Structure formats: structure tokens, C-alpha cells
């Protein structure tokens, strides 16, 4: 049996692990318990959308089936990863040796995670702007913006419903700015 020799065994390097799709979080938890693992990344993006008139937030993995780990890899840790870690299928490698990620790849990966922390809709209207409700029970009603809460991504609008002025708090995804036409 030939001995696997890794020239950079005592250095921590970033590697890409191939895992069962959907098991990335489980593999991350298991890897974080190992003493030869310095850091583990599962890049995700938070998606915010409106479904059936309700605001839904869910997490989407940017690289399904892959986990990125900062490892001190040698023959023992290699065998541990391949034979004893449930969910780990392989490590990206050439024929015999794992291929560490380049520093430029790692920095762009970490940067993409930082940018994608929270997907928020840019609020393109201000107080007293005319808006139209695009979804929900008040769909197609028009009104004016009274208050904007950027942290909660909500807006309070005044709408005339059957002759009565009504104040509503809506998600910013439920309204759009209406350009007022000039008459004259």
C-alpha cells in the first residue's frame, strides 16, 4: 500500500469538500468538532419574497453539494475525512492529491458571503410619495407614504377605502411607487 504524502501537511489551507446535497449544514457541524479544522464555510444567501400575500424568508445555498474548509491535512486527517465523516463524498483533487484553493478564490468566496448576508429591497420612495399596493387584500389601491421603517422593511401608507382614510402597514415588497401625471 502506497503512502499518501502531502507536501503542505502542517499548514492550514482551504479545500473544497464534495458532500451529499442537502447535508452541508450537518457536515459543517461535524467538521467544526474536529481538531484539524480551523474554519468551515457553507455560503448561503437569504431570499425574501412574497408568496400568497405573506413575506417569506428562506436560505439558498450558493454552492449546493460543496463545503469549504480551512484544514491541516495529512494522511491521517485525509483518511478520517474520506472514511469516517458521514456526508463527505470526496475532496476536490487531482489524481492523487487534494487541490487547495488559491488565495484569490478564497477572498472572493468570503467577499461574496459578506455581500449576500441579507437581501433587502432598495426603498425607492419617500414620505408623501404616491404608491400603489401590488399584492394582498388591498391590491391595486393607491395611497401616500406616511412612514418608512428601513430596518423592518415596512412602510405605513394612507389609503382611501370606500370613502374612509385608512392607515396600513405593508411590506416594501407589497408596494410600488406611482409616477404622478401632471395635468394642466
Features:
alpha+beta, four-stranded antiparallel β-sheet, Alpha-Beta Plaits, 3 helices, 184 residues, SH3 type barrels
Give the structure's gist in a few sentences.
The chain has 184 residues and is α+β, with helices and mostly antiparallel strands.
Helical residue percent? 10-25%
Question: Which stretches of 5+ consecutive residues score pLDDT under 50?
Answer: 1-9, 115-119
Whole-number average pLDDT?
81
Which CATH architecture of the largest domain? 2-Layer Sandwich
**Might you state the CATH topology name of the largest domain?**
Alpha-Beta Plaits
What's the helix-strand series?
EHEEEEHEHEEEEE
| Backbone structural class | alpha+beta
Q: Given this structure, which CATH class of the largest domain is correct?
A: Alpha Beta
Q: Largest beta sheet: what is the strand line-up?
A: 10-9-8-7-11
**How many domains, as an integer?**
2
- The CATH superfamily of the largest domain appears as NusG, N-terminal domain
Distance between the termini: 90 Å
Strand residue content:
35-45%
Shape: elongated
Question: How many alpha or pi helices?
Answer: 3
Assembly level: single chain
Major β-sheet, in short? 5 strands, antiparallel
The beta-strand count equals 11
Taking Cα atoms only, what radius of gyration do you get, to the nearest Å? 25 Å
Kindly describe this structure:
This protein folds into 2 domains: 12-115, Alpha-Beta Plaits, CATH 3.30.70; 130-177, SH3 type barrels, CATH 2.30.30. The chain has a 5-stranded antiparallel beta sheet, with no helix packed on it. It is built from 3 helices and 11 strands; from the N terminus they run βαββββαβαβββββ. Helices cover 17% and strands 39% of the residues. The protein is elongated.
Amino acid at each position: 500500500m502506497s503512502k499518501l504524502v502531502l507536501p503542505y501537511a502542517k499548514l492550514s489551507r482551504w479545500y473544497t469538500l464534495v458532500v451529499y446535497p442537502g447535508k452541508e449544514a450537518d457536515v459543517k457541524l461535524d467538521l467544526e468538532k474536529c481538531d484539524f479544522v480551523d474554519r468551515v464555510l457553507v455560503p448561503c444567501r437569504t431570499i425574501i419574497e412574497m408568496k400568497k400575500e405573506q413575506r417569506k424568508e428562506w436560505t439558498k445555498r450558493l454552492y449546493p453539494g460543496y463545503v469549504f474548509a480551512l484544514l491541516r491535512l495529512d494522511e491521517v486527517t485525509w483518511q478520517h475525512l474520506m472514511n469516517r465523516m458521514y456526508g463527505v463524498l470526496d475532496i476536490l483533487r487531482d489524481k492523487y492529491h487534494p487541490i487547495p484553493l488559491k488565495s484569490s478564490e478564497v477572498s472572493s468566496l468570503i467577499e461574496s458571503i459578506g455581500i449576500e448576508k441579507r437581501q433587502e429591497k432598495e426603498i425607492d420612495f419617500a414620505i408623501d410619495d404616491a404608491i400603489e399596493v401590488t399584492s394582498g387584500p388591498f391590491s391595486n389601491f393607491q395611497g401616500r407614504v406616511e412612514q418608512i421603517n428601513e430596518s423592518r422593511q415596512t412602510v405605513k401608507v394612507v389609503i382611501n377605502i370606500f370613502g374612509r382614510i385608512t392607515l396600513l402597514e405593508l411590506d416594501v415588497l407589497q408596494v410600488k411607487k406611482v409616477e404622478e401625471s401632471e395635468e394642466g
